[in-house]
Amino acid sequence: MNHYRGGQPCAGEARLPEGTATLTPVTPKTPRTTETPETTEAAEPPASVTPARDWDAIPERNLDRRELRELVDELAGDPGRWAAEVDFPEDGGGRHYASLYRDAYVDIWLLCWRPEDDTGWHDHDISSGAVRVVSGALKECNPRIGGEHLETLVTDGESFSFGPDHIHRLTGAQPGSVSIHAYSPPLWRLGQYSISDSGVMRRVSVSYADELRPVDEPVDAEQVA
Ligand SMILES: [Fe+2]
Description:
Blueprint: H1 65-76, E1 96-102, E2 107-113, E3 122-123, E4 128-135, E5 137-142, E6 150-155, E7 159-162, E8 169-172, E9 177-184, E10 189-195, E11 201-207, H2 221-224
Antiparallel strand pairs: 1-2, 2-9, 3-10, 4-7, 4-9, 5-6, 5-8, 10-11
Bound molecules: fe (ii) ion.
Residues 18, 122, 124, 168, 170 line the site of fe (ii) ion (FE2).
């Protein structure tokens, strides 16, 4: 499901959010705000939720992290917008994801996680973001130089937000995990990090269309020079 406001979609509709091994094409569809939600295990809304805003109700400006978190939390309670996109391909085609919405200020994705899915360390350049887990659990790690990395388990019903200064790594903590992600402004460049065996951390700027994956191979001494 792709929803674009303002005519043409922003460039980059095929970008790979949060690390995706393989692009799973998603056919653009018309808004499904009036459709009957499809029932899946991941789609059960909380008993009492405030109906999510229409796509057109999203402000036409950049959203801060609080607003992004509110947005993904609201969407979690409106599975008619995303439940049909939940999928776990059995053909080894990699992690499945779907673009739910994109305009000049925000883009929203649904991601389906297997335990082997790992984004590697990355930042989001100038974008803020928010993540809501709607099924299963994700593990978020934050790098700690010279110490144990911080690990946080984010389970079904929980969400978090972050600013452009945030560096993290996400992995699927349970089979069949599903999450909703929102970014503002829409991702264009990301920083991908490697941490060598000696603890040296290095950043490379990558395009939204590049695959996010672990790049923690030891840094060659000649490259460091
Ligand atoms: Fe991220």
